[in-house]
Design brief:
2 helices
């Protein structure tokens, strides 16, 4: 075939190639996603007096993790085609247009439904599998600018049992998704930032039982193709402190030591938001006339797939840390409640709870009184540092109060 013939053939076929690139537009800007999942009602508890049983509803989840493999032919690139407005109030949703492009060399089957509830079998006692794809807007500071740690996302779901909820993207093909997004985290002062697209892809199994549920998640790691940034301006919620006061009203800086970790809650995952968390008890230093004491608080370390978990060496009582945390009254909990994790049988019957509180070597135990209510704080990656390590420590009983009054390094 001559060059001219090949050229004419390409010219004639080119409009078809262009049309084949975008194979679907999904507009969920004004859609209220249905994500509630049903489970059988809880049976009456028959726990004996004197045992630690937790009746009623219970829920939980686990995640199996992995890592990308550059040899994997599967890859996705999440482009931000449009962000409106580009001056964003942290408490207001904004409009985003995502381009989900298969940048690999193999076809990929992706979920495309905003409604998880529609995938559940009619029998609420039956387990089922589904896929979830989170389309993420991730913000970071401008080079040489202020630190920015912002994230927001929307999620799509699908199951092979519901063919309309899944779609195959061949290499070079893409879908466009229009959505309303709201930031989950933001800066406490006006700041110039850069947004870029990201994703989480998971295979999930929903296990219902009487009175609760368990979600088993498996992270899938197609390669992530870097995409361009989009410049935005972020503004904190109305009523927050002025720009010269970067800490928000519920942000606290405290110094102290890790007293205990909660083994049953380590590296859990919120299957809908993709957020992971670890829980530990932190002793805020209190300096009084007769020496040093500790005010125990509950700390929830929240992080996402591409953010670091707490290293094992973090849980060392001899290390003194400075934490910058945010108060969250919704997760206040007693030492007793935090020390036990609910268990149920396969039929959903409550079983004796598991003791999950592990006090670190050398940490005082007398401050962890069972009925003590622990104020809860949220810690994010990069918001802690080691102040000192290996010095002699002297503690006595303390009652939690105002934590260092929010002043850095106060004594």
């Amino acid at each position: 075939m001559s060059f001219r013939s090949v050229f004419l053939l390409l010219v004639l076929a080119w409009p078809g190639f262009l049309k084949a690139q975008e194979i679907k537009h999904i507009d969920i800007s004004n859609v209220r996603s249905r994500t509630e999942l049903r489970h059988p009602p809880a049976p009456q508890s028959d726990c004996k007096e004197g045992t630690h049983c937790i009746g009623g509803g219970s829920g939980g989840g686990s995640v199996a993790d992995g890592a990308p493999d550059q040899r994997d032919p599967h890859a996705l690139g999440i482009y931000l085609l449009r962000v409106t407005p580009t001056d964003i109030n942290a408490t207001e949703p904004f409009q985003v247009e995502f381009k989900v492009l298969n940048t690999g060399t193999a076809p990929m089957e992706l979920p495309v439904s905003p409604h998880l509830s529609d995938l559940q079998p009619s029998d609420e006692s039956v387990a089922f599998n589904y896929f979830s794809l989170a389309l993420v807007v991730r913000g970071q500071g401008e080079p040489q600018g202020l630190r920015v740690d912002s994230v927001g996302f929307v999620e799509l779901f699908g199951s092979p049992d519901h063919t309309e909820s899944m779609m195959i993207l061949r290499p070079g093909e893409w879908i466009r998704v229009s959505a309303s997004v709201k930031l989950l985290t933001w800066s406490s002062e006006p700041v110039s930032a850069r947004f870029r697209g990201d994703f989480w892809l998971r295979k999930n199994t929903f296990h219902p039982h009487p009175g609760g549920q368990f979600i088993e998640a498996l992270n899938l790691y197609p390669n992530d193709t870097p995409t361009p940034f989009m410049a935005v301006r972020l503004f904190p919620p109305a009523g927050s402190k002025l720009p010269k006061q970067p800490q928000s009203d519920n942000t606290v800086v405290g110094m102290g030591h890790v007293l205990a970790r909660i083994e049953g809650l380590a590296r859990r995952i919120n299957s809908l938001s993709g957020q992971r968390y670890e829980v530990f008890i932190f002793g805020i230093d209190k300096w009084e006339r007769d020496g040093k004491s500790a005010a125990p608080v509950k700390v929830v370390y929240e992080f996402y797939r591409d953010e670091p978990n707490l290293p094992e060496k973090f849980f060392d009582f001899s290390s003194r840390y400075e934490l910058t945390v945010v108060r969250d009254t919704k997760c206040d909990e007693s030492v007793k409640s935090l020390s036990y994790e609910a268990n149920v049988s396969e039929s959903g019957k409550p079983l004796p709870a598991t003791y999950v509180l592990k006090v670190l070597d050398g940490a005082p135990t007398d401050v962890l009184k069972p009925d003590l209510i622990l104020p809860c704080f949220v810690l994010r990656p990069g918001q802690y540092r080691v102040v000192s390590k290996g010095k002699n420590l002297y503690f006595r009983d303390a009652v939690p109060g105002l934590v260092n009054s929010g002043k850095r390094g106060s004594r």
